[in-house]
Write a structure and sequence with these properties.
heterodimer; A: alpha/beta; 6-stranded antiparallel beta sheet; globular; B: mainly alpha
């Protein structure tokens, strides 16, 4: 990108032919954290981001307007037996296209993975239809990085940070959960400030967690990481820059990234190392779109695993109406959790665990998602109960499957002329059994506090997108090694949730950050050793 | 499609305005709407039918491209209108008012605080 005559766009800090820089593609939980960490350790970083650089004061507290401001709405297609392919065929995922990536609309739920969730192939043995594999690392490898990540994100109930107070919606879910005998009931470990910390204020309980946090009480790479990277003088942030291809030399090492800038001009940035953190769908797409004579099936894809094993968590929601007001929209959207069902107990009819988490929507989104495509007087009457409604989200582990997969749809091209990603997904029967169990559990929680009616809400477009460049001990089983380093390409790294070998029940952001911090250690050590 | 008797007609007028806008932007959409509307008025004009007959008529075309265009437009317009928010008891944005921290984020009093109870 060259300096613009009108002066609105900053001049690039590093030259396009500076082959000493590390290029990070994507500024979300993985890429934004990694870029900041590398800058703080003295590296020169070019951070390429497809989305715009919004500031929190520009965020919109109106659900559809905000979606149009922040969401990744570039064309995508879907296939498979999942309901999304029928109900939201061009919106398989609800992620952000903005500086800060999907951390911008993240509610902040921070459970850690459990020890057994890193080795579910060993724990369960083979399961028909599932491409299970143990992670090449275990909880003990990640624990020091979880500690660092929790401090960095300011997670409540860690590092002496006070617990979030109970809001109205939590009083309903939490009371019901206690009455049915659940013990792991709390306002949770959350990445928003309950007291001022790290230069950001305590929450004023203004809701709208999924629309970007206007007051900066929530951790995001936009507000809590990238400004620190900028202070080092070693960050070159390039928003509105869509990476379309990663280039390599004859030896198979990557040499740079081709992207389209805000003016629609194709640019090339040379690089010593490239780190891909575009969220699972776009990460797979970029690797596949970078196919070359040397890598005919896509970059770093000798295993054939790029794009496969796409996971999105078993999700769903339960809403309930009551004869007294709830006002679920007041306060922090997800500050509440029930952990009892996150254990592994195949006696329930499925393997793996799930969480019940606090959740609310405004009327605009609720009307679309409560019962997709419903209409009529009955539906309108339900909507009139809005202020008497409580809500929860179900989040559990789904099993990786070889054919749940991101591929290139060569019949459709985006605004940059690139084939769009197609996302194919079928529920595994384990996923379906878990969802049924979770719906029933959610209903029993609300029944225990005298719900008038409960509603089973089908999965939304996914915010947790995982597994399309998975870690493996052996190169033939996956795309990257335990540090996120491509098995096939020594100076190519994947730095987002794509690397997850299996997805656990936990919301992935904390683990993505922990993995990025571990990767930063590895990168620094390799750079010092002259190995990159 | 989303009948709330207490809402003024203006709220529903948003839907036809948005559809007219979509029709101006794309001739295919304009044709789809014209064809859909004339099919609806094939017998007695749709607007003159009693509510239950209107409902039955709409059920007959549920799932058609025209129906889905109107429904998906209506669900967004009707439930994003501040008058609808007021009707269903939604206060909306609070950032400019200091959030809900001092305005009832935890004022539910018909259940105990699960964090306090043991």
């Amino acid at each position: 990108m060259s300096p613009q005559p009108n002066g609105h766009r900053p001049v690039n800090r590093f030259a396009a032919d500076d082959s000493d820089v590390i290029v990070v593609i994507g500024s979300g939980a993985g890429g934004g954290t990694l870029a900041t960490e590398l800058c703080e350790r003295g590296a020169k970083v070019v951070l390429i981001e497809a989305g715009k650089h919004h500031q929190p004061e520009d965020f919109i507290n109106d659900e559809w307007a905000s979606l149009n401001q922040l969401a990744w709405l570039d064309e995508r297609t879907t296939s498979g037996s999942w309901r999304i392919a029928e109900e939201f065929p061009n919106l398989p995922a609800w992620t952000c296209k903005a500086v800060g990536g999907t951390t911008v609309h993240w509610a902040g739920c921070c459970p850690r993975f459990k020890e057994w969730e890193f080795r579910i192939r060993s724990e369960h043995g083979p399961i028909d239809g599932a491409s299970l594999l143990d992670w090449p690392i275990g909880l003990s490898d990640l624990e020091p990085y979880y500690d660092k990540a929790e401090d960095r994100l300011g997670v409540t109930r860690t590092n002496g940070i006070p617990a979030p107070p109970s809001n109205n919606n939590f009083k309903v879910m939490g009371s019901g959960a206690k009455r049915v005998g659940y013990a792991g009931v709390s306002t949770g470990r959350m990445a928003f400030n309950t007291v001022p910390r790290d230069g950001r204020p305590a929450t004023v309980q203004d809701g709208f967690n999924y629309q970007g946090d206007k007051q900066r009480a929530h951790w995001s790479t936009l507000t809590a990481e990238i400004p620190k990277a900028a202070k080092t003088g070693r960050l070159d942030l390039r928003p509105e820059s869509m990476a379309i291809r990663i280039q390599h030399d004859e030896s198979g090492k990557v040499t740079g990234v081709v992207y389209v800038d805000a003016e629609g001009n194709e640019q090339r940035q040379k690089a010593r190392v490239v780190c891909v953190a575009c969220n699972a769908i776009e990460t797979a797409r970029l690797l596949l779109n970078s196919a070359s004579p040397l890598f005919p099936d896509g970059l770093a894809n000798s295993s054939g695993q790029v794009g496969r094993n796409y996971m999105r968590h078993v999700t769903g929601a339960v809403f309930a109406t009551f004869d007294k007001p709830v006002r679920m929209y007041r306060g922090e959207t997800m500050a509440g959790i029930v952990t009892d069902e996150s254990r592994n107990d195949p006696g329930r009819g499925f393997v793996g665990g799930y969480y019940l988490q606090l959740h609310s929507l405004g009327p605009s989104f609720l009307a679309t998602f409560l019962s997709p495509r419903a209409w009529g007087r009955d539906f309108a009457e339900i909507m009139e109960q809005y202020d008497h409604m409580a809500g929860m989200l179900l989040v559990g582990e789904d099993l990786p499957q070889e054919n749940n997969r991101v591929t290139l749809n060569r019949d459709a091209h985006d605004q940059f002329g690139q084939p769009v990603p197609n996302v194919h997904f079928d529920d595994h029967r384990n996923d379906a059994a878990m969802r049924e169990h979770a719906y029933a559990a959610g209903e029993s929680v609300y029944a225990a506090v005298d719900a008038l009616r409960t509603f089973r809400v089908p999965p939304y477009p996914a915010s947790h997108n995982l597994g399309t460049a998975r870690m493996s001990a052996r190169p033939e089983d996956g795309v990257v090694n335990e540090f996120g380093r491509a098995h096939d390409v020594p100076n190519l790294f994947v730095s987002d949730g794509s690397v997850m070998t299996t997805g656990a029940a936990a919301n992935p952001t904390l683990t993505i950050v922990a993995l990025a911090l571990r990767q930063a250690d590895h990168l620094e050590q390799q750079l010092k050793a002259g190995a990159l | 499609m989303y009948p709330h008797d207490a809402l003024p007609d203006d709220v529903y007028a948003r839907v036809s305005e948005r559809l007219a806008e979509a029709a101006r932007e794309e001739s295919g959409t304009a044709r789809m709407i014209e064809d859909g509307v004339s099919a609806l008025n094939g017998g007695r004009p749709f607007a003159e039918l009693p509510a239950d007959e209107q409902f039955e008529t709409l059920k007959g075309i549920d799932g058609s491209e025209f129906f889905e265009l109107v429904r998906s437009t209506a669900v967004v317009e009707v439930y994003s209108d501040r008058r609808t928010w007021q009707l269903v008891g939604y206060e909306g944005p609070s950032f400019d008012k200091g959030g809900y921290v001092k305005r009832g984020f935890n004022d539910l009093d018909w259940l105990p605080d699960p964090e306090a109870a043991s």
